[in-house]
Amino acid sequence: MSIDFFIFGIMPYVALTVLVVGSIARYERDPFTWKSSSSQLLRRKQLMLGSVLFHVGIIVVFFGHLVGLFTPIWVLDAIGVSYGFKQLMAIVVGGIAGVVALIGASMLLHRRLTDPRIRQTSSFADIGILGLIWLQLLVGLGTIFLSMSHLDGGEMVRFMTWAQSVMGLQLNAWLEVANVHALFKFHIFLGLLIVILFPFTRLVHMLSAPVRFLWRPGYQVVRSRRQTTLPSRPDTAPTAKAQAARPATGGIAKPAE
What we know:
0% strand
């Protein structure tokens, strides 16, 4: 079995199976680990800027790949979008988003590796998956230089055909990309590896994005103006004898007759 057949023919189905089964199993068995585990309380510096840059960039990159790979080719032909134009848009938009995400990932990775407190509370999976994403972004930016020599969009169509053939369960889909540049192959391999590791890392919080808040009706918290009288503590409440000995408010105590 060739390495190309394994990466492009077998690994995609392994990755999808592990993603679905692993995510469901983790949510059912360890629901309290289904979180992003933010380290903001330990050190806020670098977190906000790095997190914003990383998330904005990676979201654009992710959906750009999703739309770019799985848009049927006949749709491009029907709406009159040339392959070369789509290739150029992928280079420009993907390049900018990739650089933004790489800068953010570098800040977050530097923060985790150099701060002793955050390093101590970070697991191997936390650092490993962030480092893997950083490497994937770097390799992805490297493929841009290769794509610039194929501005006709021919290589892009090959990857689109491969991705859509895999989802169509066509066993010979791997032949579409068997002869592409090694850097493209490494880029795809890293992407599939991240998908396999997804259920076992903090990346699972992506599946719990609070999108329901977009259509939930708003509400306002109002504090009541009414004064509430707290009950007296048993050990501090005055006894009946003390109440009898205490003079009335505003009056004059009379001597005992």
